[in-house]
Structure formats: structure tokens, C-alpha cells
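Example: Acyl-coenzyme A thioesterase PaaI-like protein.
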Amino acid sequence: MRQAKLARKARLLRWAMNFYPPYLGAGVRIQHIAGDFREVRVKMGLGWYNRNYVGTQFGGSLYSMTDPFFMLMVMENLGSDYIVWDKAASIDFIAPGKGPVYADFRIDEALLDEIRQHTADGDKYLPQLHVDVHDGDGTLVARVHKTLYVRLKPRVRQAA
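Written out as C-alpha cells, the predicted fold is:
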């Protein structure tokens, strides 16, 4: 039951995010959100609206295309007992993006178990994740580092 509900939520979120004005304006398209929220694939084309002065992908758009996904994926997998926020991020620009670029996000049960273990006593945990942005040929364009803030909600901490 929960799995079917999560899969419907993933389809609806994908549809809604593809019409989200900042993503429309930057040419970002969410191509896939797995029904269990463990995989996401994002694409960004190159057009006049996201091209920088030298004709390559604008760095702000490269970051923007990766912004909320780890937070959403972890939040959906941990459930409503947890607070999940983006805490920090950085981006390393490796090569110019001269055409469409892609980011593939993945999380696994080991990460979720690690988070549960570190937050079980009510402490915050700051997992560090990264996603690579590649062009259509597989060339690494950028690497985005994300730090999440995860903690049990106060009502759950008090009950424990």
C-alpha cells in the first residue's frame, strides 16, 4: 500500500517539477523519479536562456538542476518522523557543458540505515552526498557536493 502511494507521489512530483517556473526557465527536465524515491534522473538542455557569456552551461543552472533531489529522496524514504533539510552545498566545475547535461541521483538502504543509526538518540546527522553532472558523451562537467541536516522531529525525540 505504502509503495503504491509513494509511486503515485513520485509521478505527481515529477509532473509538477517539470512545470515549476525556475526549472522551466532554466530548461531543466526531470526525466525519471523511481517509485521508491531512490533514483532520480534530471536533464538540462543548452539554450539562450541558460547559456553564459562564453556559450556554455551557466553555472547557476548547473547547480539549480541538482538542488532539491537528495533532500526529497531522503525525506520520502525516512518518512514523517524526520526533519530533512539541505544544509550546505558546493559545486566543482570540471569541464564546460556545451550541450545537454544529465545528473543521476541514487540513494540506498545503507545510507538510510546510517542516518537512522546516527539520529536514533535524537542527535542531528549531516550526511555528505555528491552527484556528478555529465554531458551526453559521459564527460564529467561538474560535481555537486551536498550536506543534509537530518534529525528526528521533537515529538519523536520526546517519546523516545
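The radius of gyration is 17 Å.
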